[in-house]
């Protein structure tokens, strides 16, 4: 796959780990820090270490895995490790992991000593097609997702499909939700390609195409003033359901599972508000509903989910803001909804 160029940095696909090694060796950094979690430490770090060679040239910072670790306390831990290691402004942070690592690692690097260089090495499908591209960094506060963060571009992104072989099927489906979203909001032909593919093992060509679609959007609107809002489709309701699940379920929803719920709910809102046809609503439900296990939504949780939505960073003047579809492949931003309409969308999903 060809290298993609984003806002001042390359996104490598072919021989990504070799490219990472060359980047580090040619970068003349004072010190290199590799941020991992307990999973990527076992499954991915050894691959990178084999290429890097001399362990004296880098230090490892390891945190626990999971969204619950993407908070200020763990971020302070990363900063303290950088201080203890004597990291200066010429240091490099290598974020080797999924979305939690790339989001929080990018935030930690972008704020340490007012910013040190970092690169993203996404190891999950979700982080490859979403979190690692576009310059968003962030942490959660009190279960409000990504409420603190920066827009800071990495120096490079290195996407190695081989890392996906370490993932369980549920994590592949989590990333797939963002690929489906890219088709729904941006490109009907890409959506049709996805429908015909083996989505439990998505081809590299479709992953590459998904990154191209997202990159085109973030290049045009890096700080989410207009077209980049399209990428929020499914995320207003989806983030709220995800947050509720994280605090109530023993086995919480993955990000992608929650976004799948959000896309179905917000597709219903599009059917009611912006002209999405009933046939296309049914098509979206058929595809997404066939991939993801149905989650039990009940009216007893609606008020909690709504209160979480009220804290969403996308809201304007206290109004809950959703991105919708006019049709498959065409988005419609800045649609505001009252509680009753959102509850109706939750009812739609619950009744599927």
TrEMBL record:
Residues 175-315 form the 3-dehydroquinate synthase C-terminal domain. The gene is aroB. Its EC number is 4.2.3.4. Residues 61-172 form the 3-dehydroquinate synthase N-terminal domain. One of its GO terms (cellular component) is cytoplasm. Keywords: Cobalt, Lyase, Metal-binding, NAD, Nucleotide-binding, Zinc. Its cofactor is NAD(+); Zn(2+); Co(2+). Signal peptide: none annotated. It is an enzyme of class 4 (lyase). One of its GO terms (biological process) is chorismate biosynthetic process. Catalyzes the conversion of 3-deoxy-D-arabino-heptulosonate 7-phosphate (DAHP) to dehydroquinate (DHQ). GO terms for molecular function: 3-dehydroquinate synthase activity; metal ion binding; nucleotide binding. It holds the Pfam family DHQ_synthase. This is 3-dehydroquinate synthase.
